[in-house]
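Study this chain:
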Amino acid sequence: MDTLLWIVLGALLAVAEIFTTTLFLIMFAAGAFAAAGAAALGAPVGVQAIVFAAVSALTVLTARPTIQRHRRSALSTGEQPFGVEALEGANALVLEQVDAEGGLVKIDGELWSARSYDATHVFVPGQRVQVIQVRGATALVWQDDISPGELPRSGG
């Protein structure tokens, strides 16, 4: 019975990790699965709790610093950006009108939902824009012919 409880706890923590994406709860899930293994081998509840605590602590102390190092922005470490970070600064073609509410652009052959970086600007189909920032699956865009120092302030 203890084995099943530890497995359920581990599964709940793993599912919760999916929603938080912090890569923190998964370490406790690993501890719960290790405790389930101890329970399956017949260890008493006290030993199971110690296994849970020890494995959880070890994964937090050893794996978390490595994970955090790899999660830092490529731009802040001077490495070549990839993924969504690589889109920032890219040129895009407006396919459907882009304004503060939304729109559609084509970036490197891919379709992206977009919004105007400055809520007062509207971009029409066929216009070239530059990706200033990516929030989730939406590219915030601005006119293509400006330098980064001339960006307007957002939120206005």
User: Anything to note?
Assistant: The two ends are 59 Å apart (CA to CA). The chain has two domains: 3-76, 90-143. The chain is about 40% helix and 20% strand. Strands lie at 91-96, 104-107, 110-116, 128-135, 138-143.
